[in-house]
Amino acid sequence: MTVTASARRKARHYAMQALYQWQMAGASLNVIEAEFHTDNDMSKTDVAYFRDLFHGVAKNLDEVEAAFTPHLDRKVDDLDPISRALLRMSSYELQHRIDVPYKVVINEAVALAKKFGPTDAYKYINGILDKTAADLRAAEVAADKNA
């Protein structure tokens, strides 16, 4: 399958939902992943990307949270579950998926926050990820500002 923007978008959508479920239920990653494959039509999804995001966040949780925590005005556990899942997933992408432009990571997170998050959560997510991207991708952000 050719990887399209919409296949990546679906992968992020499902990864956010899987992370939400993992945070709330604490079930095993493999059980949650199997449920997603059973319950959803994954034919138009970049499944490898879904798996990378979902397992990558869980495996690197401390490192992922350390990237965005300095920019929070509250504890990670005080974030609503959707915002927490999005910040974790997006920070993982910023750290480990340098093939994806930082603006794409932020825009996708904002779109998911608008769709699933509490009112105005997308503004908070945008602000935190802007600062996180400036830390993790300083050269890319600087080049973008100077363009």
TrEMBL record:
Pfam family, one: NusB
GO molecular function term, any single one: RNA binding
Keyword Transport part of the UniProt annotation: no
Superkingdom of this protein's organism: Bacteria
Domain NusB/RsmB/TIM44: 9-132
GO CC, any one term: cytosol
InterPro entries: NusB-like_sf, NusB_fam, NusB_RsmB_TIM44
GO biological process: DNA-templated transcription termination; transcription antitermination
Entry keywords, A to Z: RNA-binding, Transcription, Transcription antitermination, Transcription regulation
NCBIfam families on file: nusB
Family: Belongs to the NusB family.
Job of this protein: Involved in transcription antitermination. Required for transcription of ribosomal RNA (rRNA) genes. Binds specifically to the boxA antiterminator sequence of the ribosomal RNA (rrn) operons.
UniProt name for this protein: Transcription antitermination protein NusB
Biological source species: Microbulbifer donghaiensis
Organismal lineage: Bacteria, Pseudomonadati, Pseudomonadota, Gammaproteobacteria, Cellvibrionales
Gene name for this UniProt entry: nusB
